[in-house]
Amino acid sequence: MRLKYETPSSNRQPWEARCCREVEEAVDAALAKLSPDMKMLVLDRFYRGLSVARIASENGMTVNSASASLHDALRLLRLVLMDFAARRWDISRITTCRICRHPRKETIESLLRTRRKSQSWGAFCKRLERAIGERIQPPQILIAHLRHMTVED
Questions:
Q1: Does some domain include residue 8?
Q2: Is residue 104 located within the same domain as residue 67?
Q3: Residue numbers of the domain that contains 64
Q4: How big is the CA angle at 122 (ends 116 and 126), to the nearest 5 degrees?
Q5: What Rg do the C-alpha atoms of the chain give, in angstroms?
Q6: DSSP 48
Q7: Burial, 69: exposed, middle or buried (Cβ in 10 Å; 0-12, 13-18, 19+)?
């Protein structure tokens, strides 16, 4: 689904039109990375202008569930679009992720990619501690970074 963003074109300069196209393409690419359900929530909320309560009732969800799912979708979009903004406007990406800021990030990500689903997070944290010489706790930090890695791939 190609989204069209309405902007007044009478006063627009050529560079503004190029910028708008780049932003449209980045938003479309970011939306394509979402699951169909998450994409639908974002489109309903921000393009159709529906309230969270209305989205919940139309989709057979509770308001809390719709709100939480929308929050997750926006978090994923934010991650993808932060990279676009950093490249497009030459700004450094500010991250609050401890793993993204870690000096041994590549080693941690390599180990995360090789983690078996059957391995407990406690056992994985011990393996990671042996590899990098530092304990990363709680495991939710690693789980959140793993989701972050999945979005970037």
A1: no
A2: no
A3: 14-88
A4: 90
A5: 19
A6: S
A7: buried
* Separation CA 127–CA 21 (nearest Å): 46
The pTM of the full predicted model, rounded to 2 decimals, is 0.54
The C-alpha angle 24, 45, 27, rounded to 5 degrees, equals 15
User: Could you read off the pLDDT of 130-143 as tens digits, one per residue?
Assistant: 999 988 888 888 88
**69 shares a domain with 33:** yes
More confident residue, 140 or 92: 140
Number of folded domains that form the chain? 2
d(CA 79, CA 72): 11
CB proximity list for 77: less than 8 A, separation 6 or greater: 30, 31, 34, 42
Question: Is 34 a domain residue?
Answer: yes
Does a structural domain hold residue 93? no
CA distance 150 to 24: 22
Return the pLDDT at 53.
96
- At how many degrees (to 10) do helices 139-152 and 63-88 cross? 60
Whether residue 82 is predicted with pLDDT greater than 60 in this model: the reply is yes
State residue 68's pLDDT score. 92
